[in-house]
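Supplementary notes for students who missed Thursday's class. We covered one full example, reproduced here. Read the sequence, then the structure, then the short commentary at the end.
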Amino acid sequence: MPCFVNAHCHLELTGLAGELPRNKPFFEWLALLRKHVENWTKQDYQASYIKGLELSRKAGTDIIYDVGNQLSEPFNNSQLSTFNSQLSTFNSQLSTLNSQLSTLNSQLPTLNSQLISMHEIIKHPLPPPCTPHSIYATPPELVKQAVKSCVKAGIPWSIHLAEFDESDRFGDFLEIFSDEPALVKNGFIVHGNFLTESDLNFMAKNNIALVHCPQSHEWFGHRDPDFEMWKKSGVDICIATDSLASADSLDLREQVKTLFRRYPKAFTHEEALAAITSTPGKYLAKTIRCAVNANSMFQ
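Structure (token representation):
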């Protein structure tokens, strides 16, 4: 079996599955999300997080790059040991990887399934490892601080960008780093529906991957992506799940099915497989060994 890599999700929002409407403007949807979770406790977020891990495990996901801002990962909680025991039977499936991942094998000689849990900065600083939410919600100085922390830790940064209109432009993100442009490398741009050709060319040259979430894209009724422009640029393309607040499944294969249902000619099957395996895998291979909070999901 190939090693499935989910490059973007919000496990702590798993408990919102089926609770929020489709085809709402983003900020109306966000207001409804906040209303649903306004009385959630730490235990509620942790239970939601654990449920997301369980669903991901059942879907065969091996590596998860998760972002959340509630510090809900229960790594010091007794629930984690229970979860690990539930996953122990999966170890045998990870001893060999599909031949399509042979280049990744040399980087991960002792691969175990991994969870990379990033603290997503919105308005206030959070402990590392952290990454910025967006340029519309996160102050520029915190965007820069978060990206710097990722670079220091050797972890790819991630940011929601160019998602729902042209107000959160890639150029505005680059402007934050005008005095330290070398920081804008080795990261994930999530959604990127309004990226331009020049944006994509920059990303391709600077090891910045574009993360597309098919079911979330459909959920919000975003405009059709320009897949031809994406692929022509040479940018690395990953397919991920986002959260169950705006998707139906944490199974990467279901995301690919949604992609092919809506855009049957956008990707070959080989390209789609790479987008959930080797492409995100090459960004996270080194992270698995050096991330401050990279914890094995399988003991």
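Commentary. The chain is about 40% helix and 15% strand. Residues 76-112, 289-299 have pLDDT under 50 and may be disordered. If anything here is unclear, bring it to office hours.
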